[in-house]
Records
---
Amino acid sequence: MLIFNKTQERFLPYLTSRQVDQLPEKDKAVVILPVASIEQHGPHLPVFTDSIIVQEVLERALGNLPDDFPAWVLPIQSYGKSNEHTGFPGTFTLTSETFIKVLKEIGANVARNGFKRFVFINGHGGNTEIIDFVIRDIRQQTDLMVFALHVGLRVGVPTGGLSEAEMTYGIHAGDVETSMLLKCSPEYVKPEWAPNGLPSHLQGMKTPPFMGALNYAWLTRDIAPIGVLGNATTADPERGEKYLSNAASEVAGLLIKVKEFEFEKWQA
Ligand SMILES: [Zn+2]
């Protein structure tokens, strides 16, 4: 899981120094940093869930691209910002300050190696705000073209087969993530421990209160004492397959756009 099985030829650290130096099409090449988390995902999913999902989606996306597509993948930055899950066993988080520094310094290295296009593919909601401001800082400091793909949040948003309550509140270790893990890494799932973590006291509201007009800081223990937001008991690997493959084809399409991106020509 820690390395790319299906896309080894695109794993940048397998190249030699000379190969990195002499890569063709360096101005078009897309350097990709998967970013995720190591954090509690309820009693039933591994703490590596976000990391597994983002690597699975990326592997599939790269498999959808032509063999000669110039994409180079860096080792996943699994340690993310997960302080919302502090207090639950299995959570390993960086502080915001450290996480920001690590991302910026990896960006500086991408630029120093002569690349022009750098993409974060993020699998953890808690990293989103930081990545969105860091990409601007990296652009300003290095002149790289920098992009962020937030899988499951803005890219490959799962639809189909989910109740309205799940669509509204199923943001962590619920039906969607459990379905995807049951498909791609079932050996790490404990279905017999899967809970229904829909917050009954909040249901009936179309917008979760923490996404409303008064944005308040929350920790997982404030809103979901069992660590799950969503109903994991309804998970289904067939839907998991659909969510993964839809996300992969959307990511593949966006990577093609990244390769061709020029500010003056860009049309979203
Ligand atoms: Zn997750």
Note: Helices lie at 17-21, 49-64, 96-112, 128-142, 164-169, 175-184, 220-223, 237-260.
---
Amino acid sequence: MKNLFSSQFISLETLPSTPLKPLMASSLTHALCQDPPPPHLDDLLCSKPQQHQTEDDNDTSLPDTSSSFCLGSPSRYLSGESRVERAWSHWTKLGRPKLIVAPMVDNSELPFRMLCRKYGADAAYTPMLHSRIFTENEKYRNQEFTTCQEDRPLFVQFCANNPDTFLDAARRVEPYCDYVDINLGCPQRIARRGNYGAFLMDNLPLVKSLVEKLACNLHVPVSCKIRVFPKLEDTINYAKMLEEAGCSLLAVHGRTRDEKDGKKFRADWKAIKAVKSAVRIPVLANGNIRHMDDVQNCLEETGADGVLSAESLLENPALFAGFRTAEWVIGDEKRNRDGNLDQADLLVEYLKLCEKYPVPWRMIRAHVHKMLGDWFRIHPHVREDLNAQSRLTFEFLYNIVDQLRELGGRIPLYLKDVEVDTLAAEVTANGLANNFCNTW
Ligand SMILES: Cc1cc2nc3c(=O)[nH]c(=O)nc-3n(C[C@H](O)[C@H](O)[C@H](O)COP(=O)(O)O)c2cc1C
């Protein structure tokens, strides 16, 4: 048997799975609705996975997953005190990641994670995966969850409302990740209909049983990503309950379930600070992270152990390396310089990663719009040309970048002077060092 684990690209085709009737899960949204639409070209993988041949290809042994099992046996028999200790020892073993790519459906997929890692991200979440579909549908598994050896630390996120199904899904990914995460924050209508995400805030006993099930039976720790309640006291009790149930890492998005629009509502860092003070496990802050000054302020104000960023990373995957879009330089032009990098450069790097680690075209299309959005506003006919394509190719996308460059109006990413100096020191022969925590 060919050992795919020793190659750089891992898809769950290699994992034991229950044979199933194939269901065309053409996008997560559609998959969640259980109402598969006709197959769309954008849902096809951009290319066949490249198998990177190595000398070990004939070695049929399983990969060394020891690092992901550092918590040892499930925490079934541990006291609260020992669980907290183990939570910290695991977090420390991972290098206490501070700068983390948030989970994003259709957007925090492998090539995007790898791009962000190159530019300073210490860890990353997968997009939310639907636990039931994940257990039932091989095609969904293979398409929606891919990873590689360099894709660590990795947090695999699921939505779930059934403890047994959640455990089944989690067991399939535990050798490839450092946390299995439960999405307790999705506020969308689809989550209401499916009874998951932030709507589980109405059924805390179920949340408790989901976390307990995994904490007691899984070898990797369980993490949770929550939203805050309107009342601080409720948020604190919620966080304490999760810790008690066996959660080892808590990410707190400082907006309530009703505060859906991140641009309209500022995340409440005070609530995150209160949670951090109330629990003893590592806590991550989420919301309002648009550049590295925000990171510094957020860590100082909340006392959190790390931050997640979502929307801003989509536009600027080099955010954690200190690069900022023009929007965050206005009024402070003197202290910022052209960082010799722009969003088109980042898109080209992303596309190359997609050639190496194939993903559905719909994900690539979404990233093209985000990364080139500012350029498209100046040259809308290029966007129209893109939208007119029912089937994308890499050639077409590289051409778009060339076309925009020829049309002119380059929009640089900027670095603060202090960050330029640090960057110069950190650049290695391999490109950017994965260590930009010191740039602020
Ligand atoms: C495109 C997109 C997809 C998202 N998908 C998920 C998801 O799968 N799971 C999740 O917990 N949150 C998801 N979120 C929410 C983000 O993880 C994050 O909590 C939210 O955007 C606030 O962070 P920000 O202010 O840095 O954008 C998504 C956000 C965006 C923009």
Note: The radius of gyration is 21 Å.
---
Amino acid sequence: MNVHTADAATVEEGLAIQEAQAVLDSESATAVAMQDTLLTPRFYTTDFDELDAIDVTPVRKDWDQLIEEMKADPNKGHFKKDENWDHVDWDGMDPELRKEFIDFLISSCTAEFSGCVLYKEMKRRGKNQDITELFQLMARDEARHAGFINDALREAGIAVNLGFLTQKKKYTHFRPKFIYYATYLSEKIGYARYITIYRHLEAHPDKRFHPIFKWFREWCNDEFRHGEAFALLMKTDPKLTSGINVWWIKFFLTAVYATMYVRDHQRPAFHKALDVDTDWYGQEVFRKTSELSKQVFPITLDIDHPRWMKGLKALQVASVQVDRAKKAGGVGGKLSQWVGSARAAWAFAMLFTIPAKKHQVPVKTRLEPVY
Ligand SMILES: [Fe+2]
Ligand SMILES: [Fe+2]
């Protein structure tokens, strides 16, 4: 058996290695990962038989090429601390930054692992060879990603107990089409987030306060490939991206972008340390994600519309109110929580009703990571 998740050739091997390390895992980090709110990463389950019934014949050529690329495994061995991993002074780190950065790592680890669990389950339940092969390869990557973040957390004396999460975290059921929209977007936005930070730190290396950011380029290429796979899956059935489903696409685009905006604004010290303006970062990531999603979605959100930023800011203020009210408790807290939730719903409606931009989806789906 390999000794590190980065060298694991399969998801099973990667998870076994992490299981063996679980003795070191801390309760508090796992408790954070267990949280299920509108903003925290969730675990998903779906109708696996319906997913298994997909026929990839209409996209066969692109499909085989993508699978070959993934099988070649360009990132095998990459997600491992090596001589480029600088010493991290956790004790000397500003306490606010330390708190937010740990929260960032835990939430990223949970999101990576959420993909791993879903993909692994699909591989286990499926009979369709195209589908099980793809999901096995993607689960392999996500297990490595989650394992690597746990390596970073372990240096701070904490780690997320992934075995415990698999068994105890609540699973949200989504119909396969919602899994496609949500997962496609989370893969592509993941790519856009990682590459935007990577390029920013390439230009400003003095702001790189932790070595994990050096790994982001190869990392985001994995996410890019996963997104490509979901784009091809959606291309097999034109119904998925037309008619009423265009409204669902708009809903998921709005929800995914808005969640990212609110989440990132909860970490001011983290973004200050990176010297990244959170509003700029959000818009930059939305722009890249929108550009990419044109490969399969017939609409993109109008993120330059005057109501866009206003709506996001209103949503963020409302989410702060809800958070404070929850902590305050009592009748006053409950009341304030309701008002906050109503404000959040109104802000979301403000965003959702911005007219979308329509465009033609290209015949050729496949893209390359160019950012
Ligand atoms: Fe990942
Ligand atoms: Fe991924």
Note: The first strand starts at residue 43 and ends at 45.
---
Amino acid sequence: MMMSRVSAGARRETGQRSATAFCPTPAGVLARALDYIRAMCVCLSLCTISSALAGAQELDRTGGPFVPTPQVVVDQMLHMANVGAKDFVVDLGSGDGVIVLTAASQLRAAGYGVDIDPALVKYSNAEANRLGISDRASFHVQDVFKADLSRATVITLYLLPSMMVNLRPKIFLESKPGTRVVSHDYNFDEWEPDDQVVLDVPEKEKVNGVPRATISLWIVPARVQGKWQVQVDGGEGYDMTLRQKYQSIAGSASAPGKDTKLTYASLRGEEISFTVIDGSARRSFIGKVSGDAMQGTVELGANRTARWSATRS
Ligand SMILES: C[S@@+](CC[C@H](N)C(=O)[O-])C[C@H]1O[C@@H](n2cnc3c(N)ncnc32)[C@H](O)[C@@H]1O
């Protein structure tokens, strides 16, 4: 299996990774294979269906039919999200449950999946029982728009492009900053991924005509837009204004009677960094956002550091 990482417009090869299947029974394998064949018949191409759905308003809330994510892609999605025993994985449109079942059985994570198809939910819960992980993995008949994201540390998706875009505000506003969101093939349009990998997956050619899978990762950013009062312990204070478009931030900093400028602002989850040019001095701030507060450390130059905090007005 070949894998390429796409980052900031550049594509480079990064190597190979082995699969860690959740090891279903022969009956399970057969059921999954039958589902797969059924999905292929139903779904000549997700992309074709996507365009067909584009103008159909009543289908805006439909993420598409069941097409399983191949195990090798599931493994890579969980790997990119760095899923471990402390994680709570929510799969929106969980199909046969493979993502949450793999996370729970192989990586000892907990989580749940939601799907509108009761037969798929029943199958997924039966698999969780058979694997002895029903205390950590469960599946529910529910519309993805109603799913509770409050416990999620990882969210996974394999849904049609229009559904991805419709879900974007819910994910941005309802999930905790720092939540890792991983998607198979489709993206959030103007919310650009923080990382992306392209895998060669020959078996996908039969399903959608493309022998590749694109896996994208987003880290849900803290919401930092607004006016902040920044105070360095025992030192200067600044009025800082931040503008935000998802993980992209920029703004300005001012202090009475001084020539100040904000540069190099960046945000990853709840971790923020920015530099204030204060006259001839350069102050580099790093810190953590928590609601309407931030705090961290600032480099003042000449090996001096100080604590700082900020509140939003
Ligand atoms: C392409 S399959 C992905 C299945 C699984 N997540 C995987 O990656 O193998 C999409 C699934 O989303 C479900 N789905 C579509 N629209 C939905 C909605 N509005 N709410 C919940 N599930 C939905 C479908 O029933 C289907 O099982």
Note: The mean pLDDT is 86.
